[in-house]
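Morning, I've got a small favour to ask if you have a moment. I'm working through a protein record and want to make sense of it properly. The fold is given in discrete form, as structure tokens running alongside the sequence. Can you walk me through what the tokens say about the fold? Thanks so much in advance, here it is:
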Amino acid sequence: MTLRWEAFLDQVKERGDYKSVQEADRAARVVLALLGAHLVGSVRAELAARLPETFALILLNPLQSAEPLSPERFVRATAAWIEGATEATAAWDVSAVLSTAADAAGDALMQQILLQLPAGYDLLFGRPQRT
């Protein structure tokens, strides 16, 4: 089931403790654009189908990445794209957005998503995996 735009952003806003929906929207756009560069094929399409249309389009038309970013570099890249962000605030942004996306994805799709990403992303999604 696809989340409505308002419901998705309300969850991001709450998890990120943002003062406004605009702050949550900014974080969601950057994080999903970066995530889209790391997912391919039907996995990316399935996640997009479960997100509000605005965010689905961002995920499907991602920022370009020459190589998969480690979780640490993903957070640093997020900080670079959000004006005034630090690595600490970017980690908070990433967590708020990716945990909301993980809820929309569900467990089965999350397993497929994590298979496409470098080790350690499970923590960014708030879904720690046993090793």
Observations:
- The mean pLDDT is 93.
- Residues 11 and 121 are 20 Å apart (CA to CA).
